[in-house]
Amino acid sequence: MNISPDATIFWQWGPVSLNATIVFTWLVMGLLVLLSWLITRNLSVESGLTRRQMMLETIVSAIRKQIREITGRDPDDYLPFLGTLFLFISLSNFLAIVPGYQPPTGSLTTTSALAVCVFFAVPAFGIAKDGVGRYLRHYIRPSVFMLPFHVIGELSRTLALAVRLFGNVMSGTLIAGLLLSVAPLFLPVLMQALGLLIGQIQAYIFAILATVYIASASRAREGGAPKAGGQPTEGG
């Protein structure tokens, strides 16, 4: 049994290989594009909404509400990036119910790529909201000697994002596989259901942490981190 989808090779030619991580990552992206097209076509602003439009509006409204509560700002600027992050991780983990499928979030390469996206999104949103000068000044608050600590903090939270998601998804898949090989049918089924729940929780946590980091960068000029409800802390 392979611990990581990186170890499952579907095709290889010399140094070039096509592993399960790449295949299932593109599968998830393709499904998201297809589902987005199917759900968003023929949208209506009148009464008598279809079930798929009501489902779409429920999901989008929930994501918008979470972003607004954390950032205290209009969620439209953050929704495309943060919503895509959540939906990709959520669908990647949910498809674990399909036999033969291996969630790409069980690979450290995938979770690292997602964490790197957040790493670059944080200064991008911060600079877009506050300008280059105001954003960069928060690295030397309250003293220039804090610069290396701020940089280390940025790098360490990126590492934590990647390792947390990878560890939880990989461990759930591993435990379910082990139980399936040594235990009767029902216990692995229960563990699989628990793994699906944990996968959705991890998608939520990853998206929430990314939102908190971006909101903190957007409020760098105020010298405080945001609270739930969008109010910055005093001082700092």
Characterise the protein shown here.
- With about 240 residues, this protein is mainly alpha-helical.
- It has one domain.
- Helix content is about 65%, strand content about 5%.
- The chain has a two-stranded antiparallel ribbon with strand order 1-2.
- A hairpin with a 2-residue loop joins strand 1 (about 10-15) and strand 2.
In short:
The chain is mainly alpha-helical. The chain has helices spanning 20-40, 51-71, 79-94, 108-130, 132-137, 147-182, 186-218, and strands at 9-13, 16-19.
Descriptive key words:
236 residues, mainly alpha, two-stranded antiparallel sheet, disordered C terminus
- Secondary structure: helix percent: 55-70%
Radius of gyration: 20 Å
Total E-strand runs: 2
Count up the helices.
7
Mean pLDDT: 79
Which strand order does the major sheet show? Answer: 1-2
Shape: globular
SSE run: EEHHHHHHH
Low-pLDDT stretches are: 223-236
Biggest sheet architecture: 2 strands, antiparallel
Count of spatially separate domains: 1
Provide the β-strand percentage band: under 5%
Structural class: mainly alpha
Terminal-residue CA separation:
50 Å
Topology:
Blueprint (H helix, E strand, L loop, with lengths): L8 E5 L2 E4 H21 L10 H21 L7 H16 L13 H23 L1 H6 L9 H36 L3 H33 L18
Antiparallel strand pairs: 1-2
Helix pairs in contact: 1-3, 2-7, 3-7, 4-6, 4-7, 6-7
